[in-house]
From TrEMBL:
Coiled coil: none annotated. It comes from the Bacteria. The keyword Cell inner membrane does not apply. Pfam families: DUF3048, DUF3048_C. The lineage of its organism: Bacteria, Bacillati, Bacillota, Bacilli, Bacillales. Keywords: Lipoprotein. The keyword NAD does not apply. InterPro entries: DUF3048_C, DUF3048_N, YerB-like_sf. Residues 47-187, 215-321 form the DUF3048 domain. This is Lipoprotein YerB. It comes from Mesobacillus campisalis.
Amino acid sequence: MKKWVASLAAVLLLLQGCSQERDEAIEQPDEKVDSVKEEEFAFHFPLTGVGTKTEAEQRAVAVIVNNHPQARPQSGLHKADIVYEVLAEGDVTRFLAIYESEQPEKVGPVRSAREYFIELAKGYDSLFVAHGYSPEAKELLASGYIDELNGIQYDGSLFKRADFRKAPHNSYITFDNIEKGAGQKGYKMDPAPAPLPFRENDQPQGKKSEAVMISYGNPAFDVQYEYDQKQGKYHRYSDGEESIDLESKEPVLLDNILIVEMNHKVLDDAGRRSIGLSSGGRGYLLQKGVMNEVQWENVNGRILPFIDGKQAGFVPGKTWINIVPSVEQVAFAAE
């Protein structure tokens, strides 16, 4: 932990410089323009809690996104309502990006499925999108357990290869092709998933903590989050580089960071894992620059935080969930 704290301190020096640059770039809003009040909205998106004037009807779509350094920056992650970050083989993480309130033009690079990604996507009744699969995941997908599109069957048609990256870091799919593929296979693209629990417009109480580092055992996959007071959002960094969208250069901005400890077991010589998604356990919830220790539970396939036995609501906005083998891999900035 001392080593992680020391690493975090070094990262924070870098991030502070980034914060100053962002602060200088942010323009002050026109005082004459009133912001739209939340109570004016008749409906809310189910996975972000953000207000909308029309009822959400879009089915959730869950896509496995590559996080190898050669796949960065990715496309479409900044539009995801929820992202799970989970270890695959070795000390390499992958993302399960779940979309409902927004659909980016394209998502990728898309990577192969593992059983636990399928289970997490099932919790939102998602259309599951991947390119490839482990033997166990292939068997589960073949059983019809979840509606799915896979690049193994649609490479070169629904899934396109980018010429500026090398395989397996170059498979992309557009949302138009996701909807096209769903139509070809007879999948419905509605209804919207059941809503998550959200907080009212109050300030979460907890220990002040505006920066955190998560070590996955390989510096290239270490994660840092920094809270930006002006924006009221968390910025995300991989190996010290801010996570941005490849095309738009927009940063990934988050409202909830949930870090949960789950049992990991290596299954074979390839390093494939089983992960205990159902056991419950320890974790941390970061919102609005404060941190709370939580217990997580699997509620109908969704990983949700609890404080003192009561379900903790999310702040309206986007959520990133980091699954780690141990909370000892998490270090917070000293105040």
